[in-house]
Amino acid sequence: MLIFQDFSAGYGNRFVLNNIDVRVDENLFIGVIGRNGSGKSTLIKSLAGLIYFVKGEIFYRGISLLKRKSLNVVSYIPQEINVVFGFSVYEILRMSQRSYQKFFSRISNSERKRLDDVIDKFELKGILDRNIFSLSGGEKKRVMIARGVAQNSDIILLDEPLSGLDIDHQIKVFQILKEISLSGRMVVASVHDLSMAAQFCDKIMLLDNGRLIRYGTVEDVLTYSNVKNTFGVEVYVGVNEINQKRFLIPFK
Ligand code: ADP
Prior knowledge:
Elements: E1 2-11, E2 14-24, E3 29-33, H1 40-47, E4 53-60, E5 63-64, E6 74-77, H2 89-94, H3 109-121, H4 137-150, E7 155-159, H5 167-182, E8 186-190, H6 194-200, E9 203-208, E10 211-217, H7 218-221, H8 224-231, E11 234-239, E12 246-251
Parallel strand pairs: 3-8, 3-9, 6-7, 7-8
Antiparallel strand pairs: 1-2, 1-4, 4-5, 9-10, 11-12
The chain binds adenosine-5'-diphosphate (ADP).
């Protein structure tokens, strides 16, 4: 269980995320939605331990995420990917493994299997030797998401994972994240595309002006009136008769 307890977070001395109180079950793919500036990134960064002006608590399995010592609980894939050194794709993936961080430690069989698995899932075989600087934005994004997944953390945090990906890879990446959540890891991602969130996420957090105004299933949260009240936009909410999932089309 992930528990936010009267949690606020911000920058300088100003809170931009206010009094979040929610209990989130594990094994879920959580979509965080809201307008620009509503606090999605701040919420994700708070879970990653990257925000220092905070109040209240976030507990994961009873342990404070804010005071945790072990960095292995979460992996965080930021929106902007800043790579400083020109490593190869394989090196970048390899660095996500624990053995790499210890001197003279060889890659273990389970680590190798994990790497092979993400290389396969994210279709990276053909670009493993490429310098990260030579990749397109979308390829780089896929590598960094794969790296986060390969980290074997309990919680995977992604800030706008779909940006820069073509529609084929958007579907593939969300499908992988869904499978990961079903296998017992928690996935929390900010998502702009409401129909993608509706199709793949188990639960939705709807933020408005730094407040969590709804948390629940797609059917509870992604409704005409919730979208109208928070985004100020009218949407047609339909159900795809092929997969029975909701879709939302903005209209004027
Ligand atoms: P979202 O991800 O929903 O677009 P953010 O969490 O990025 O929202 O931003 C929430 C609020 O915090 C906004 O008002 C934004 O201007 C402010 N903010 C974000 N990052 C910083 C920062 N580094 N310093 C000061 N204010 C920030």
